[in-house]
Amino acid sequence: MRYFLAGVLAVVLLCCGVSTAQPLARADGYHGIWYMNQPTKDEYVYKYSGGLGTYCMKHIPMAVYSKEANKTFFVYGGVEPGKDSLLEMVSYYDHATGMVPRPVILMDKKTNDAHDNPVIALDDAGHVWVFVSAHGTSRPSYIFRSEKPHDIDAFGQVLETNFSYPQPWHIPGKGFLFLHTRYSKGRGLFCASSPDGREWSEPQSTAHIAEGHYQVSWPCGDRVGTAFDYHPKGKGLNFRTNLYYMETADMGRTWRTVTGTPVETPLSEPQNPALVHDYEAEGLLVYVKDVNYDPAGRPAVLFVTSRGWEPGPKNGPHTWRVARWTGTEWRIAGVAVSDNNYDSGSLYIGADGTWRIIGPARPGPQAFNPGGEIVVWTSPDGDTWTHLRDVTANSEYNHSHARRPLNAHPDFAAYWADGHGRKPSDSRLYFCNLDGTRAFRLPVTMTADMEAPEPLPAP
Fold first, then answer.
1. Which of 239, 293, 301, 316 is CA-nearest to residue 270?
2. How, if at all, do strands 154-161 and 141-146 pair?
3. Residues 285/240, Cβ–Cβ less than 8 Å
4. What sign has the CA pseudo-torsion 168, 169, 170, 174?
5. In this structure, what are the phi and psi dihedrals at residue 50, rounded to the nearest 5 degrees?
């Protein structure tokens, strides 16, 4: 099987073996990357910026809980203190001891671009897989596999190729379904599959409407669903609108709408059967954040809408919304109003039917820049939402990009980073439990191989 690089003539064979695994260096603590994108020449300084070690919401998943190991394995974009070169970091939280190890430095990506942050997956045997992204085609992407199950001491490189916004899903007994983006005439959505992570199908285009898309996805049993926006022609990639959803139950070979109606891929027109809501007609931008499923397996999508891409109050309100499939229709509810398009959190739906959102839905110290204070919202049905509690308050920096682990354990339900919203700063990593009653900062400076995270004071 061959994996063809979009837009170039090179071909990379995927049937290569794993390179020899070597023990990896460890960092002396948890230091996230600070990153900015697109100066705005105003008081907000950048389109988005801050501590973006858990960026972006289109890199999924960044953490996975293993019941067998009783550990939450996670990745993030890190740095060596005082430097800005992106380090691909791997670690875990041991639920039995409540401690974390010194994080592993998987590789130096030789860039300061947080778009190259990694994602993670576990296979049936418990091996840890890390997919290292690239931002476009100027740098390579990589796939790594741990030498031993449930162990991060040594990894072998499986592949060097090119992909962006990686979303690998390991379906038990079937292998990997890899949703990702490839840059050619915009941002096209693709999928590929592999039984073992080494031999891959040729990537298949799933959607390329006008100038392309951003997507978020999540599995539900053997199904994988994706929610995405689109970039209209001639308006640039800062303009994104509409909300779409489709899913596959056969490892990406065919796709269907939420009602089961087959769709012909790649989608190429804005008006198509996967359309959930036409926000282009309302003049609103759409920023997709998360996909989840209720106990009946019906999808729900978390997203933010606004009137423009520039930061600041002129493009508000920045409304957090949930679109949920009732079984007969898509119903969309407003949840909260924050102050930036890149305020990003995660959607949780419990087996008991309780809905939660954990994320920076309250303004932080750098108002109108990405992130803010972490809060928990809750709902009995996905329609009516109530602020449950604040997780952080009176913070030095904005907290940003609260991420949900796959198979999340309630004690490590969300994790995120902080950083100054308008100028380079240090960045710390945090996590909290499902109800937001306990939050912790990962050790910044470690003197032992294993240490306990630092509890945050109650707001």
1. 239
2. antiparallel
3. yes
4. negative
5. 130, -165
Contact 49, 40 (CB under 8 A): no
List the Cα angle 121/126/130 in 5-degree steps.
Answer: 30
Q: Tell me if 215 sits within 8 A of 290, measured CB to CB.
A: no
pLDDT, position 22: 65
pLDDT digits (tens, 9 = 90+) for 143-180: 999 999 999 999 999 999 999 999 999 999 999 999 99
The owner of tokens 């670690």 is 91
Nearest Cα neighbor of 320 from 283, 288, 279 is 288
Quote the Cα angle for 49-50-51, to 5°: 140
Which stretches of the chain score pLDDT less than 50? 1-18, 20
Cα–Cα nearest to 181, from 172, 190, 173: 190
Residue 239 near residue 285, CB atoms below 8 Å: yes
Q: What share of the chain is helix, strand, coil (3-state, %, to 5)?
A: 0, 50, 50
The amino acid present at 136, given as its one-letter code, is G
Which pair of structure tokens corresponds to residue 298? 């019906």
Q: Is 416 helix (H, G, I), strand (E, B) or coil?
A: strand
Q: With left for phi above 0 and alpha for psi between -120 and 50, is residue 239 left, alpha or beta? A: beta
For residue 101, the 8-state DSSP code is E
**pLDDT at position 21:** 62
Which single residue is written with the structure tokens 């945090």?
430
Please, which residues have CB within 8 angstroms of residue 236's CB and are 6 or more apart in sequence? 211
Give me the pLDDT at residue 11, please: 32
Residues paired with 241 in a beta bridge: 230
Inter-residue contact 268 to 260 (CB < 8 Å): no
Inter-CA distances, 20 with 98, 141, 145, 146, Å: 32, 18, 11, 11
Instruction: Read off the amino acid at residue 333.
Output: A
DSSP secondary structure string, 312-341?
SGGG--EEEEEEEE-SSSEEEEEEEEES-T
User: Quick one: CA torsion of 184, 49, 455, 446, rounded to 10 degrees?
Assistant: 80
Domains and CATH numbers, the chain: 26-455 (2.120.10.10)
What is d(CA 366, CA 50) in angstroms, rounded to the nearest whole number?
A: 10
Sheet with 175-183, side-by-side order of all strands: 164-171, 175-183, 187-194, 204-207
| The model's pTM | 0.96
Give the number of other CB atoms < 10 A from CB of residue 12: 15
List 156's β-bridge partners, or say none: 145
In 10 A of CB 83, how many CB atoms? 12
